[in-house]
Amino acid sequence: MRGRPARDTPRSDTQWALIARRFSRHRLAVASLYVLVALYFLALFAGFFAPYTAEWRDLDHAYCPPQMLRFSLAEGLYTPALVRHVDPVTFRKTYTADKALTVPLGLFVKGEPYRLWGLIPMERHFLGVDREAWRERREKDGAKTEITPTFYMLGADHYGRDLLSRILIGARISLSVGLVALAVTFLLGIILGGISGYVGGSLDNLIQRGIEVINAMPQLPLWLALAAAMPQDWSPLKVYFAITIVLSLLGWTGLARVVRGKLLSLREEDYTMAARLLGAGHGRIIFRHLVPGFTSHIIVALTLSIPAIILGETSLSFLGVGLRPPVISWGVLLQDCMNITAVVNYPWLLLPVVFIVAVVLSFNFLGDGLRDAADPYGGH
């Protein structure tokens, strides 16, 4: 039939189109990509999606358990109000749901004022207590006792601070520290690994011996020593960048080894010799002709280094030598879990671990999918 192309006509897709098609077949990697995009989106707009601000607290609802989000045609979104009970002997706080009293919830409601990205003043939150509806309901019922309406989807800590809000706000630090350290790791790994593999000789021996010395050091004690050496009077911003640099200086060796090994096998190829004979400089040969030849290995090494950096920041902050309050990160939130009694009685304090595990697994699955997709001409 006219107008129909021949079935045996070869497709002339670009390399990036082949990579995208093969990556789309890796369902676990695609799902991990969606999870990471969602988490980074929530972190980027944490002030809006968090029901409360980071500084907001209600001591009358300390260790409040998670409150279920419910919906009915009559009331819309709501959650049962909680009544606090204090044990006169142990002073332990317990809460029971008051089925006769509900707290109305709403979308895009007015709440605690905040500044989006520290610049734009806002009051609207994606989900929170509808205080106007609550006030109208209390006036209609003629209630005399003032009850503070609260909504803790993931519970509260010992100061009555909303754990969900602090997890979302802490994600800005915990997720960004991996990306910032990634840039330093990429530069050190590519430059030092490229010089080591391309130049060779005594310079290669010097760089490799330095890598072996760094790898021989136990990472956690070295992290603790470097973090403890930071001045105590540093601002949270200085501590943040210092922690990022510390994690980067110890995480570039794996990428450098990968780059060196690949350059050793590619520097004698015909196209490398041709570029050298045509007068191309060493920098152009390394970064224009050699490095693109093993992009998949670089992608995998970088992708797998991000969760290691996130875990490093979490470990340092958990042990109290990394980021410190008032800075909020997932590691700082886990400091409340040092008391085993608090964990047993209030297990929702461990919820930041769920987010850490989700991020680490997502990056690992994403790296596996990118590794397979970057070689579209290879077999499974």
Give a short synopsis of this structure:
With 380 residues, this protein is α+β, with helices and mostly antiparallel strands.
Report what the structure shows.
It is a single chain. The protein has helices at 15-25, 27-44, 46-49, 131-141, 163-199, 201-216, 219-228, 236-249, 253-266, 270-277, 282-290, 295-318, 330-333, 340-345, 351-373; strands at residues 70-72, 76-86, 93-116, 120-129. With 380 residues, it is an alpha+beta fold. It folds into 2 domains: 34-42 and 165-373, Orthogonal Bundle (MetI-like fold), CATH 1.10.3720.10; 56-161, no CATH class. Strands 1-2-3-4 form a 4-stranded antiparallel β-sheet. Helix 5 (163-199) packs parallel to helix 9. The protein is elongated and about 90 Å long. It starts with 14 loop residues before the first helix and ends in a 7-residue tail after the last helix. The model is unreliable at 6-10 (pLDDT under 50).
